[in-house]
Amino acid sequence: MPSLPTPSPAAAAHSQRLQQHIRDEIARCGGWISFARYMELALYAPGLGYYAAGATKFGAAGDFTTAPERSHLFGRTLARQVAQVLTETGGDVLEVGAGSGKLACDVLLELQRMDALPARYAILELSATLQARQREQISAQAPQLLERVQWLERLPQSFSGVVLGNEVLDAMPVHLVTRQQGMLLDRGVSVVDGQFSWQDQPLNTGALQQAAAALDLPAGYLTEINLAAPAFIASLAECMTRGVLLFIDYGFPRAEYYHPQRNQGTLMCHYRHHAHGEPFFWPGLQDITAHVDFSAISNSTPDLQLLGYTSQANFLINCGITDLLAQTSPEDVARYLPLANQAQFLLSPAEMGELFKVIALGKGVEMPLLGFVRGDQRHRL
Length: 381
Ligand SMILES: C[S@@+](CC[C@H](N)C(=O)[O-])C[C@H]1O[C@@H](n2cnc3c(N)ncnc32)[C@H](O)[C@@H]1O
Hints:
With 381 residues, the protein is of the alpha/beta class. It has helices at 9-28, 35-44, 67-70, 72-89, 102-113, 128-141, 206-215, 228-239, 254-257, 294-298, 312-319, 321-326, 333-347, and strands spanning 33-34, 92-96, 121-124, 149-152, 159-166, 175-180, 183-192, 195-202, 222-225, 240-252, 268-271, 274-276, 287-289, 292-293, 305-311, 356-363. The strands form 3 sheets. Strands 2, 3, 4, 5, 10, 14, 15 and 16 form an 8-stranded mixed sheet that branches. Strands 1, 6, 7, 8 and 9 form a 5-stranded antiparallel sheet that branches. Strand 11 and strand 12 (274-276) form a beta hairpin. The structure holds S-adenosylmethionine. S-adenosylmethionine binds next to helix 3.
């Protein structure tokens, strides 16, 4: 375990309250909960979980940075793909897991510039504190567009248009499974001497067992299985009449995700810009994530068709990020240089360009999507 910054007494006390909440749940459940339930509580327990309480989370003062936090270019470029779909399908935008609200601002403002605004920009966000932050952000950056924004408590009964989600699927709770001595095991959490402790249980039945058995894991292999994300995509498909789902996240197709050499999985925690692998470290004060198995997302439901899957770099280039950059003259060094650095961060294979992927799934949409028209035959599901 690397040495990590010590939390303030108030933050430590907050984490202690969440730890007690999780210990109580473990006791109620007979001494064991799945890791997915632990992760769900650590991130989303009302008023206590990492996303459900007041930690800064995003940006330099928080724990990690996402593409929309890093640059307006991300949302502005994505808006071009959104505009193309809305022109074809009509309807609205629904953003899932809108974080600080920056992506919503950038997409809305660019759609306004393009004269392609939808009547409604809906946001589905689990965290009440983040909903408040999103409202503040939009009121400050795009007050004239606030009346179009609507926060939803649950998925709408019927929706057409574009669904957006950046770094949402990686924040959904994952199960941990391992194969030991020929047996599949569900790695969960118990309490030993008041501390969280790993405990494996045989995995014999149910959806998790079926998903794990299908992977044919080698001996000693430990990995994650995300049942929540494909179920969420299937729920979106049920309420969508016509339109496109666009999800951006870090991850791989199945063969790469469950590669024999990736034998300890991809679970990762982020605490004040330190990445580490210890999810029991100060629960509630750090993010917990796992990479996305994009094959599972693509196969979530037969009701959606795969319209595109490519790297973030290829997607943004196809959507015209370089045209947006070219709107600022290189001679205007003070404005151009930061923008060029941001574009480099979004596009470079050493930064976000290659690890991050974009997947588009659609219903009733036949046209080739702007972001996937050129290049990148290597990205297959
Ligand atoms: C890593 S943050 C990304 C935030 C933002 N999209 C960005 O790129 O900066 C994950 C976000 O997803 C939200 N979230 C996770 N699961 C969700 C779900 N099932 N429904 C709605 N929001 C969810 C979290 O509350 C949080 O806002």
